[in-house]
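FAQ: What does a ligand-bound record look like?

Like this one, built around zinc ion:
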Amino acid sequence: MSLGRRGFLGSIGAAGLAPYATPDAARKREDAHGHARFMEEAIAEGRKKPRYPFGAVIVSGGDVVARGVNDSGHDPVYHGEIVAIDDYVRRNGNRGWSEATLYTTAEPCPMCISACAWAGIERVVWGTSIEGLRRTGLDQIDLSATEVAEAASSFYSPQLLLGGVLAGVTDAMFRDAQALREGRGSS
Ligand SMILES: [Zn+2]
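The answer part, i.e. the structure of the complex:
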C-alpha cells in the first residue's frame, strides 16, 4: 500500500478554494499551508519540557483542538502524542478522528503511532525522525511510524504520514535538550 506524501502533494492544487467552506476545504487548506504553522504549535508545546521536548497538537477544521507535552516522569506512557489524544477526548469526546491531524515534534514511537491507528487519526505529521532522536542520546524502539502503520493496514489506512516538517528547528531543539540533560546547556 502507498503511505506517505500523496495526500499532501495531491492537495496543493486545490488550496485557497473556499477555505473553511467545508471540512474537506478546511483540510486542504491545512495540508497546503498549515504544516509549518501547526508544527510551530507542537514545538511551542515541546518547549515546555526543555529536556524532553516532545510536544504535540491535534488540529481539526483548521484549528488546534488539543495539546500535549511529554509527561513520562509522571506516567511512563504519557508521551506527548498520548497526552494530546487524552486532551482531545476530554475536550471533544471520542469522535471526529477522521477529521483530525496530529502534529508532533518527533516521529511517533510504536506506542504512539499505534494509538493513532486505534483512534483512526487520518493524518500524522512530525519533525525529527526516530534516527535523529537516537543521535541525541534518546533510547528508541527500532520500528518506524510507517512500518507500524503498514502493519496495521487491515484496519488503518492513514491519508498522510509526513516527516521532516520544520526538522531543522526540531532537530536543534532535541540537540539542546541533550545538552541540558548532560549538563552542558543553559536555562
Ligand atoms: Zn511515543
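Follow-up question: can I read anything off the structure? Yes, for example: The first strand starts at residue 55 and ends at 60.
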